[in-house]
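testing teh design pipeline on a random one, pls ignore if ur not involved
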């Protein structure tokens, strides 16, 4: 059953009535630009066809009840503050809170959720959840919130209410991506450029390899990377690492005493450049050449930012050995998914190669599928 039917059926079962509507928001794959968003740099995600759907209907003012096919029962809350609602429902309560904090009159609502986005795989299931609920509440309440302002509201829900110090990329991808396009986002100005991303026309494909090694954001490692970047920017006297120019990198590194911090900075500054290079290659139709940029990005995450795990490194190596043009981990790290740029007719061969490498290493089997660029959040 699709998430749209699932959410609708769950709404009916839980609330005994029809929802007023269904709102879908996708997960994402980030093509390139990892840990650059909170450094006010560049990212290039595309939306997945897999979505989270919120079936929603009205409730009395100041009352919200939410249920999910992923968890038993329903959670009800009123006017809420960070810390009050916990677990999966905190993402919903956080959105209500962030909208109210922005001075908006959020309508009371009953919401049922279902999702096709794999949870805990680095494909932004939490942003998909936030974005589906945000879009539903904005529509139900007839609220005037321009598209470009919506991601920051969902991000605030995650940062302040849920307590995960993530950047703006995932919510931007879920809300602002378009089908057949990758979203080139400037994470300082929030300006976007929609980059044509029709791989099939070039005989290519993106194979997503879920390492099935679980990952988490509400943990210390992500926050530690962010802190180290912010500290480096402070030492270098710039507002954010985005302001360290690529051709001034060596000079900036020479001003940092700490070896680990130097490597963190090198990752962020070179990664921003890789996003710009990738955009230029795509715009020139030189899509195969993006591969080596992706692989360089993986090496940087592995050696400089130190956010990969053996499962993703093995997947990258196996995909490359099987002939992929490039491969890299996508998302926050410490597990999650790898993407490989391959010839479209090499999907089965690449999948088998990765499966064999996993079996040899004694890892839990990976899950592989071809990802295409779907639409952003919308009312169905
Ligand atoms: C996670 C975060 F949520 C994003 O904001 C981003 O920092 C990403 O990790 C790393 O690029 O998905």
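output:
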């Amino acid at each position: 059953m699709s998430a749209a039917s699932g959410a609708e059926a769950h709404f009916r079962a839980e609330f005994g009535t029809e929802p007023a509507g269904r709102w879908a928001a996708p997960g994402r794959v980030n093509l390139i630009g990892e840990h650059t968003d909170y450094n006010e740099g560049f990212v290039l995600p595309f939306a997945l066809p897999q979505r989270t759907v919120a079936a929603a209907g009205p409730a009395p003012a100041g009352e919200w009840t939410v249920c999910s096919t992923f968890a038993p029962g329903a959670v009800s809350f009123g006017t809420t503050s960070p810390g009050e609602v916990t677990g999966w429902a905190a993402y919903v309560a956080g959105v209500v809170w962030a909208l109210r904090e922005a001075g908006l009159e959020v309508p009371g609502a009953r919401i049922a959720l279902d999702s096709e986005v794999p949870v805990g795989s680095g494909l932004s299931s939490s942003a998909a959840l936030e974005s589906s609920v945000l879009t539903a509440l904005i529509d139900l309440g007839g609220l005037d919130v321009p598209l470009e302002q919506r991601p920051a509201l969902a991000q605030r829900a995650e940062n302040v209410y849920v307590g995960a110090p993530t950047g703006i990329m995932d919510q931007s991808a879920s809300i602002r991506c378009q089908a057949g396009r990758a979203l080139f986002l400037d994470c300082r100005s929030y300006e976007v450029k929609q980059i044509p991303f029709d791989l099939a026309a070039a005989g290519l494909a993106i194979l997503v390899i879920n390492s099935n090694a679980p990952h988490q954001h509400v943990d210390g490692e992500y926050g530690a990377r962010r802190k180290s970047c912010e500290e480096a920017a402070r030492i270098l006297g710039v507002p954010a690492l985005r302001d360290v120019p690529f051709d001034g990198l060596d000079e900036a590194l020479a001003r940092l005493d700490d070896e680990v911090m130097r490597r963190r900075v090198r990752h962020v500054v070179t990664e921003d450049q890789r996003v710009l290079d990738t955009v230029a290659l795509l715009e020139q139709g030189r899509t195969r050449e993006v591969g080596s940029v992706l692989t360089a990005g993986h090496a940087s995450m592995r050696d400089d930012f130190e956010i990969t795990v053996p499962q993703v490194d093995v997947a990258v190596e196996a995909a490359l050995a099987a002939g992929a043009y490039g491969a890299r981990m996508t998302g926050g790290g410490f597990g999650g998914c790898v993407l490989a740029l391959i010839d479209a007719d090499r999907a089965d061969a690449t999948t088998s190669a990765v499966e064999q490498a996993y079996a040899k290493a004694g890892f839990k089997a990976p899950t592989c599928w071809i990802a295409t660029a779907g639409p952003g959040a919308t009312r169905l």
